[in-house]
Design brief:
The chain is mostly beta strands. The chain is built from six helices and 20 strands. A seven-stranded mixed sheet has the order 1-6-7-3-4-5-2. It has a seven-stranded mixed sheet with strand order 14-19-20-16-17-18-15. The longest helix is centred in the first third of the chain and has 7 residues.
Length: 268
């Protein structure tokens, strides 16, 4: 593994990455030694003495994943949908991880002097902790931690991997807004959103579909097609929507959009 110290890559937490995390194919060649996957140690960047053992596994297609041990690391650090992780490889089977939440700011974790993570208060004054444990394969004893500057992920950001129904016949294209997000931002009283990406704006009407119980379901409808066409979106692309401010009920809601293409690149 000589000559690979300082190798860096990033990953975004998606819905299917809680139990294992796919590593970039280029990085696969860095970790392979004689064709056999190895074990790596994970370390959060704020804490130099706490390591988490994680198995490295290959699937039938030759893609490499962080397997057993990753779930414990993710749980202990409260990794959520849409979080952005930056990995640095030190050349000695250690991956240092920096965590950025949906506010696009880095999360900083508090730790005790004895090397374990500790509970405390978040920036909104609420106290609490997230427990993360690992057995002999996971790299240590159970621990808990507090994070400064926690953002409410599901209420401020949602992620959608585009399917045929989102990109089909123009008159039938739609994108459902997650219920938790629409309730948090009063979409029942809104009729339109403004999507902002790459310095441009698109206005999209909200369609409200009644449900058997609860509030109507909101979806992006008229104007969504033009947004997709103008940005060349296709099936398998992943859209990240982040709320920009609140505004009064009934006003146009601003959403910043970022797109990860199916090949892993981002639209810039």
């Amino acid at each position: 593994m000589d000559g690979v110290e300082g190798f860096q890559f990033f990953q975004i937490i998606l819905e299917n990455s809680s139990s294992r995390l796919r590593l970039p194919d280029k990085f696969t060649r860095v970790l392979l030694d004689g064709g056999k996957p190895q074990e790596v140690k994970l370390r959060e960047a704020d804490h130099g003495r706490r390591f988490w053992d994680a198995k490295v596994v290959l699937d039938a297609d030759g893609h490499m994943y962080l397997g057993r041990g990753w779930e414990q690391f993710a749980g202990a650090h409260d990794l959520r949908l849409g979080y952005f992780l930056v990995f640095s490889f030190d050349g000695d089977a250690v991956l240092t991880v920096k965590v950025f939440d949906v506010s696009m700011c880095r999360r900083h974790y508090q730790h005790d002097d004895d090397g374990s993570t500790s509970s405390g208060s978040s920036s909104d004054g609420d106290s609490g902790s997230e427990d993360g444990s690992s057995n002999g394969d996971g790299g240590g004893n159970s621990s808990s931690m507090a994070v400064m500057g926690i953002d409410d992920g599901p209420a401020s950001l949602f992620t959608v991997m585009l399917r045929e129904c989102n990109l089909g016949v123009r008159q039938k294209q739609y994108l459902n807004v997650p219920v938790e997000f629409q309730n948090a931002h009063g979409y029942a009283e809104r009729s339109k959103v403004e999507l902002r990406m790459r310095g441009k704006s698109w206005f999209v009407n909200l369609k409200h579909s009644p449900r058997s119980r609860g509030r109507p379901r909101a979806s992006l409808r008229y104007g969504w097609h033009q947004f997709c066409v103008d940005n060349g979106l296709g099936v398998g692309d992943t859209c990240f929507f982040r709320a920009l401010g609140e505004g009064s009920a009934g006003e146009v809601h601003l959403l910043k959009v970022e797109v990860r293409k199916r090949d892993g690149s981002f639209l810039v």
